From TrEMBL:
A molecular function GO annotation: ATP binding
Record-annotated membrane-spanning stretches: none
Annotated PANTHER family: SPERMIDINE/PUTRESCINE IMPORT ATP-BINDING PROTEIN POTA, SPERMIDINE_PUTRESCINE IMPORT ATP-BINDING PROTEIN POTA
One Gene Ontology cellular component: ATP-binding cassette (ABC) transporter complex
The protein, known as: ABC transporter ATP-binding protein
InterPro entries membership: AAA+_ATPase, ABC_SmlMolc_Importer, ABC_transporter-like_ATP-bd, ABC_transporter-like_CS, Mo/tungstate-bd_C_term_dom, P-loop_NTPase, Transp-assoc_OB_typ2
UniProt keyword annotations, A-Z: ATP-binding, Nucleotide-binding, Transport
Species annotation: Streptomyces paludis
ABC transporter domain: residues covered: 13-243
Pfam families hit by this protein: ABC_tran, TOBE_2
Amino acid sequence: SPTPTATATGALVEFRGLRRAFGPTVALDGLDLTARPGELLALLGPSGCGKTTALRVLAGFEQPDAGEVLVDGEDITRVPANRRDAGMVFQSYSLFPHLNARDNVAFGLRVRKMPAAERHARAAELLELVGLPEHGGRFPHQMSGGQQQRVALARALALEPRVLLLDEPLSALDAKVRLTLREEIRRLQLSLGITTVFVTHDQEEALSMADRVAVLNAGRLEQCAPPAELYERPATPFVAEFVGTMNRLPARRADGGRIEVAGVALPVDGGIPEGGDLEVLIRPENITATADPEGTATVVSASFFGSVTRVLLDLPGGGTVHSDVPSRDAGALLPGVRATVAPAHRPVLVVPATGTTTGTATGAAA
Ligand code: ATP
């Protein structure tokens, strides 16, 4: 019989060689990925990269064409969804409209034949856990979007699942509620120690909440790493340009295995491709921009982000660059003003030149 007070503990979740095609569309193309016990793993990637399909395969709503899903070493690939130990929260509020919050949360417990008094006590406990102790009698239409998602979370946790699956649970909410719920989901997830797989297309959400972020591209894993590592040491150009804002600037080989960008020789992170034209990937915070009447760059726009101001500049040969300037130093960088731009002396990722406009900024002849 169910134990209403037991705490869920983290399971080890493994995707091995998952493949799933829908007609000619390959949604998962040999996905290998592990969620460690108790961690919050975010699946991040552009639209159509296979995030939701991966989550649905884990939930049992979708069968892979090849590969396995293991939970704590047990192959559950063929186990039907209703016999998998997973709680799920979706983007759209999926509460039963004719049930109040308490009965929504207790629904699964009722299906499992838990006595009424016990399941009501358990539902009250869960509503308290998600910060809605007074809302048990409310129906979905009497609650805000954020409150409904809290109830959905309580419902997902009611059966003490070994894995919590979240499919863009915050994307229908307004910005303020989203930020609050991010923190609350994270706090809850940490306190319960429940392994959580979180699908999002919002990189800020992934980076701010997750222990590790898995970046997917065309059904494959590009990189899975803690947020700071993903940002500081992207394993591929795709990750470099997908996560955060990135400048792509023309470069050429310099002495001592270094690379020259805008007249400055920089150390290299991860080697220099053989032959052909080269470009480097540099974050806006690693580009300085200073107002200078003799400068060759021109300020296009400046966006205030609180402590930093992101300045967009035209470069002499065409092309643009983003520079993050401490806001207290950015006052003179007004549109039309001349400026000098220089890369900070930090290791850069060197890639073959594409000559095309990709990512969030494009380079020009230095
Ligand atoms: P988004 O962020 O837009 O939700 P996603 O990364 O979650 O995208 P998936 O929903 O997993 O991507 O879809 C991956 C690919 O598989 C897409 O090209 C999608 O159109 C396709 N696809 C997914 N489900 C089906 C289906 N049931 N029938 C046909 N094609 C599908």
